[in-house]
Design a protein that fits this description.
mainly alpha
């Protein structure tokens, strides 16, 4: 694949991922989080089956189906459920994206502690720098009253779920066909979230053109389009390059939020994002004895 093509595909992937947080904020003005997620994944499952699921290789055993479903619930239902409620409870798209961009840092710590994989000095320093950047941004927002305890709990839940799902998938679903795995992920998420939407939220959604546009964005551009690009890059050995670009998503989310909602990031936020991005870059791009960080599966 030509270098220019790799950069264009990577830029699309990261831009869709970052702007997806702002798309979520728009959608949550007209739909409750569980309701929106359930509808999104029901539609995404139908589209994915027609787009590539019918040609996929499916799991051969019930255990394999179960492992893939669990990984999907963690990386989709748990991840988006937490991040959507964090925004519903007042956390901005930029700050949400910044905290969730720490997933490679948390993965590195988990791998180091439980799997006894030694981090390099640069990676250890990167973890500290990344955390310092987030503390700088979040502390500033707390002082301004823009961050609440429920929102922080929700985004922390989201971060734990996506990290656990990534590690679970690497451990138990490494040989699964990526196409069938994504279809199972979508189906499992819809099956869990739609009943929760009815029980917890009364299936609260206002059907209008804004919801239609955000669903179109999240289903086609994110769930299907970004997945296809990720699959293409992974098959050509470019997954590490895409992973290293993920630390660009917080500033993209902050800029998109500024353009759409007219709330520019403060200088302190820009500084904190820059510091955090440097930390994540140090963890994900360092070579040597440290662990290779797996890529997150899907933009939010």
């Amino acid at each position: 694949m030509a270098r220019s093509a790799r950069w264009l595909l990577g830029a699309y992937f990261v831009t869709v991922w970052g702007a997806g947080f702002v798309g979520t904020r728009i959608a949550l003005q007209y739909a409750a989080p569980f309701t929106y997620i359930g509808v999104r994944y029901a539609i995404a499952f139908a589209v994915a089956m027609l787009a590539f699921g019918l040609r996929a290789s499916w799991p051969k055993t019930p255990a394999a189906w179960g492992h893939i479903a669990v990984a999907g619930l963690l990386t989709h239902a748990g991840y988006l459920g937490g991040s959507h409620y964090a925004q519903r409870w007042g956390l901005s798209a930029g700050v949400t994206a910044l905290i969730l961009a720490l997933q490679p840092l948390l993965t590195a710590v988990v791998v180091s502690v439980w799997l006894h994989v030694r981090l390099t000095r640069t990676q250890k320093l990167g973890v500290l720098i990344g955390l310092a950047g987030v503390v700088l941004v979040v502390a500033h927002r707390v002082d301004g009253g823009a961050v609440t305890a429920p929102a922080l709990f929700a985004v922390a839940w989201s971060l734990v779920c996506v990290t656990a799902g990534t590690l679970y998938q690497r451990q138990f679903c490494a040989d699964a066909d990526l196409r069938s795995a994504v279809c199972i992920h979508f189906a499992a998420s819809a099956v869990v979230m739609l009943p929760l939407a009815v029980a917890v939220e009364g299936f609260a959604i206002v059907w209008n053109w804004q919801i239609a546009c955000t669903l179109l964005y999240h289903v086609l551009l994110a769930s299907i389009g970004a997945f296809t690009i990720l699959h293409l890059l992974m098959r050509r050995g470019e997954a590490t390059g895409v992973t290293s670009l993920l630390y660009l998503t917080p500033p993209i989310a902050a800029i998109a939020e500024w353009l759409i909602f007219g709330k520019p990031p403060t200088p302190t936020m820009w500084l904190g994002m820059a510091v955090a991005c440097v930390g994540v870059a140090m963890v994900t791009t360092t070579r040597g004895s440290g662990p290779k960080m797996p890529i997150m599966e899907e933009p939010s």
